[in-house]
Amino acid sequence: MNISKRTLMISKVTLLTAFLIVASYLVIPLPFAVAAISVQTLAVNLIALLLPPVQAGISIFVYILLGAVGAPVFNGGNGGLNYLLGPTGGFFIGFLLGVILISLLKGKKYSFIRYTFVTVLAGIPVMYIFAVGWMVAVTGMPVKTAFLTGCAPFLPMDVLKCVVASAVAKPLLSVMNQYEEKRE
Q: How far is 11 from 146, CA to CA, in rounded Å?
């Protein structure tokens, strides 16, 4: 079977975008925070670790576009411009820029340590900076309050999700790359 490079790229981007949508539905609400804990950031990190920068950016862009037009793809099945422009909207900008940055910094070959450091030390800060900045702009709350309610409760779990994504990336890369190897 001869699978074109374009078909492989479209399949990977589509599959990982669908995974992000499903992951966004898996939520644990926190009564003291403006958002809920979800598997969403695990999916965002996997997109960055499994795809090249442009493809990773396309995956997140398609996800944001689907949500913007009203598809229920955001946390807990939310969608629409009101949600996208609401207090947690900065995360979406952070996701887009974060996946591109992580994908650029991850290197050419798998390395659990490098993947973990890049997702934790580059990805999380980028996502959180945009989340806090947006929350401050939309709600008018002080930066410290925005960080304490919008990011701090999620930091330990986000670090854990970075570790899990870094570990899971190795077998997933093997599966995804086998088709490219057969194609050549």
A: 37
The Cα 122–Cα 21 span in angstroms is 23
Helix (H, G, I), strand (E, B) or coil at 52: coil
Q: What confidence score (pLDDT) does residue 28 get?
A: 79
Per DSSP bridges, beta strands 27-29 and 36-38 are antiparallel
- Asked if 67 contacts 14 with a C-beta cutoff of 8 angstroms, the reply is no
Q: Nearest to residue 73, comparing CAs of 95, 51, 55?
A: 95
> What is the maximum alpha-carbon separation in the chain?
57
Contact in structure between 178 and 55 (CB atoms under 8 Å):
no
CA angle 93, 66, 121 (to 5 degrees): 30
DSSP string, 62-122: HHHHHHHTT-S-BGGGB-SHHHHTSTTTHHHHHHHHHHHHHHHHS-SS--HHHHHHHIIII
Give residue-wise pLDDT tens across range 112-136.
999 999 999 999 999 999 999 999 9
The closest of 124, 121, 127, 102 to 51, measured between CA atoms, is 102
User: From CA 37, how far away is CA 16, in angstroms rounded?
Assistant: 20
